[in-house]
Design a protein that fits this description.
Helix content: 55-70%
Radius of gyration: 25 Å
CATH superfamily: Cytochrome P450
Strand order of the largest sheet: 1-2-8-5-3
Bound molecules: protoporphyrin IX containing FE
Strand content: 5-15%
Number of domains: 1
Oligomer: single chain
Shape: globular
Distance between the termini: 88 Å
Number of strands: 12
Largest sheet: 5 strands, mixed
Structural class: alpha+beta
Length: about 475
């Protein structure tokens, strides 16, 4: 009898706690709604709305998570995903304010496993003058015509080497092929490492390192994070050796040659202070590795997804082939090498790249933390909150792009120029953190597409895009290739 009574008392107590907690949560939400915090729900205790968020990443419409909440609560709403309460903006004007106020009001925010792997002085995490300095140096170098002239030959070589191995009827995995091509280019622009053992080492260890970017933040031997941190140590050792050798070589010669890679750029800079402070060698080595993170996966995915969309759009592919064949004919007739400007001057090819960037949303948004209370367009965002400026919601919004789910490169022709001033198209972010690799990425993809469509036809096997944790083709996009001459 006593036991039964105790049982019901316990049940009653748990019920009362649950009801109290729910009431408190409701009151909190009401209070926040009154104070202007965007509407929305924080979902279940602890997990919030994470399961719905992840589930949408495995559907063909990952934007459905955002759309559902947008229709219930408005363009800016609150939620609770991946372990934290968050305010999500699907509004281009709000995104613009978030991107343009980096450092002063908004600072980058990443999940714990990523911050552990990045290190405090990574360009991806730091703020203030040092971020501006490094961003300016790297961006200036990547945009420079001198680099583009040189890197065009490197990209062509890497593309040729990959494509020369393709035989008639071969099944090639686009995601793998493009990853091999772009990794070579990446390590060349960052640290001038060419094909060989060092390149293989970097590829292997970097692969191990980035596996830990999305994992449980537990740093014990045997855990994913631990293994990734160990891989970073090995990478650092090698990059540090390259940086130190380069520094010694620079000091032993009087005349400074052209800047060949990001290491040169960071080593040579003496800053604008009177005492000419050079950047420390450890800082340079760490940042070289960390700069590989945004570049390593995004460019091959852009190439792969372009091939995927083109496989499903014969009209777009036909026009792309015609435009590129015409350039090839001209170059062959003149007996000239391609200049980087040749590749970039093909308008339809650039439209294909824009449309792929819009639909693929390789970086679907950026995460920030708010340093002080701010009101944007009537939405109150309190200090300390996490904010997600969602690019995918803007890129896949019918108000901005008609028939959003249709791969339509011609829409960019109809839109005319001026796309970069418009915060309705931000695949490379914006403001002070606008991707410094923007032009380099577009050049790489233009060269790859040119050689692919002027030398091969292909038939893609069935595959589909997965959007979580990052954008990937489920089967790495297998395609049967046929050289055009045959
Ligand atoms: C399709 C290719 C690429 C896409 C879509 C892309 C996208 C982006 C985006 C959205 C950001 C802004 C992040 C933020 O605001 O927090 C960014 C930053 C950055 N990207 Fe890229 N990226 C690409 C290629 C590259 C490449 C090839 C490199 C390097 C070689 C690179 C290096 C960087 C760096 C260093 C930053 C950080 C800049 C800073 O915080 O100051 N990206 N990228």
């Amino acid at each position: 009898m006593k036991l039964v009574l105790a049982f019901w008392v316990l049940v009653g107590f748990i019920g009362w706690c649950w009801w109290k907690k729910k009431k408190k949560k409701k009151e909190k939400e009401q209070l926040e709604n009154q104070s202007g915090i965007p509407k929305g729900t924080l979902g279940w205790p602890l997990i919030g709305e994470t399961l719905n968020f992840i589930a949408s990443g495995y559907t063909s419409r990952p934007v459905s998570f955002m759309e559902k909440r947008k229709s219930l609560y408005g363009n800016v709403f609150k939620s609770h995903i991946l372990g934290m309460p968050i305010i999500i903006s699907t509004d281009p004007d709000v995104n613009k304010v978030i991107l343009q106020n980096n450092g002063s009001i908004f600072v980058p925010f990443y999940p714990k496993s990523i911050t552990e792997l990045l290190g405090k002085s990574s360009i991806l995490q730091m703020n203030g003058n040092l971020q501006k300095r490094v961003h300016g140096l790297i961006g200036g170098f990547f945009r420079s015509p001198q680099l583009k002239v040189r890197i065009t030959r490197e990209i062509e070589n890497a593309v040729n080497k990959a494509m020369e191995a393709w035989r008639d009827g071969d099944l090639v995995y686009m995601q793998e092929e493009t990853r091999n091509i772009t990794f070579q280019v990446l390590v060349r622009v960052l640290m001038s490492v060419g094909p060989g053992e060092d390149l293989q080492f970097l590829k292997r260890e970097f692969g191990e390192f980035i596996k830990g970017l999305v994992c449980l933040p537990i740093k014990l031997p045997g855990t994913r994070l631990y293994k990734s941190l160990k891989a970073k140590e090995r990478l650092l050792k090698m990059v540090k050796r390259i940086v130190e050798e380069r520094k010694m070589r620079m000091e032993s010669i009087d005349e400074r040659g052209p800047l060949m890679d990001a290491i040169d750029v960071l080593l040579c800079d003496a800053g604008e202070t009177e005492d000419k402070q050079h950047l420390p060698l450890d800082f340079i080595s760490g940042n070289i590795i960390e700069m590989m993170i945004p570049g390593e996966d995004s460019v091959p995915m852009l190439m792969t997804l372009a091939v995927n969309y083109l496989s499903e759009s014969p009209l777009a592919l036909k026009q792309l082939v015609e435009e590129n064949m015409e350039l090839k004919r001209q170059k062959t007739q003149l007996g000239e090498d391609y200049a980087w400007t040749d590749y970039m001057s093909l308008p339809f090819t650039q439209n294909v790249i824009n449309e792929t960037l819009r639909m693929a949303n390789i970086i679907n948004g950026v995460w920030r933390k708010v340093l002080r209370d701010i009101e944007i367009k009537g939405y109150f965002i309190p200090k300390g909150w996490c904010v997600l400026a969602s690019f995918i919601s803007v890129h896949m919004n019918e108000e901005n792009y008609e028939n959003t789910n249709q791969f339509d490169p011609w829409r960019w022709q109809r839109k005319g120029g001026n796309i970069n001033n418009n915060y309705c198209f931000t695949p490379f972010g914006g403001g002070q953190r606008l991707c410094p690799g923007l032009e380099l990425s577009r050049l790489e993809v233009s060269i790859f597409l040119h050689h692919l469509v002027t030398r091969f036809r292909w038939v893609a096997e069935e595959d589909y895009i997965v959007h979580f944790p990052t954008v990937k083709m489920k089967r790495k996009l297998p395609v049967f290739v046929t050289p055009i001459s045959s």
